[in-house]
Amino acid sequence: MKTTKFPYWKLFFVWITFLGLHFSYETFPNVLFQIIGEEGETNYFHMKMLFFAYLFGCIAEFIINRKKIGSLQQFSTSRALVSIAYPWLTITFFFLSHALTGSMLEMPWEIIRANIATVIGIYFALRLEQAFDEVEFQPALRWMIWLIFVSALFTYIVFTFNTPEHFFETPEGFGQGH
Question: Residue 83 has what DSSP assignment?
């Protein structure tokens, strides 16, 4: 699907969906919202919500543009690739201010900064979509993209119920005489 205009509606949709997922489990405490939302303020849970918000945006995009999509395989594979990378790219940008200042900002600046990082991440994801829409993926690469996509989906769901203890940190004492 060759895109000519930037899909601002999708940027807004993914951002609002992410914000909704942020409070979904607290508002609707059930397994579905535990899986797609957050149960705690961790980087992992934010990455998971970024992943699912983006997928919901892609589903909405498909429903809206299904007659304009030339190749379902190309559309779905490019979106799968972006869904894998997008949470990691957004969190990387999110950590920039921590790297520069050494700490979180005071409230409400931290919330504003986090939302700016989220919107920039979504913008980047949508620009990646446009680039990948023009790429014809070879069969081996398509299979790898889908393998990693299923792995990401599986880990986001499984880690919801059993998040690794040291997901973004090195265990104390690791590497010291071991």
Answer: H
178/173 Cα distance (integer angstroms): 9
Tens digits of residue pLDDT in 50-71: 999 999 999 999 999 999 988 8
pLDDT tens per residue, range 111-135: 898 899 999 999 999 999 999 988 8
Is the model's pTM score more than 0.85?
yes
121, 89 contact by CB (below 8 A): yes
Cα separation, 108 vs 87, in Å, equals 23
Q: The tokens 């942020």 sit on which residue?
A: 22
**Cα–Cα distance for residue pair 159/34, rounded to 1 Å:** 11
From the number of C-beta atoms within 10 Å of its C-beta (0-12, 13-18, 19+), residue 124 rates as: middle
Tokens representing residue 53 in the block: 């918000």
Instruction: Extract the tokens encoding 37.
Output: 């939302």
Q: CA-to-CA distance for 132 and 83, rounded, in angstroms?
A: 12
The token duo for 70 is 């030339």
Contact of 45 with 95, CB cutoff 8 Å: no
Alpha helices (H) in the chain, listed in sequence order: 8-27, 31-36, 43-65, 72-94, 96-101, 109-132, 139-161
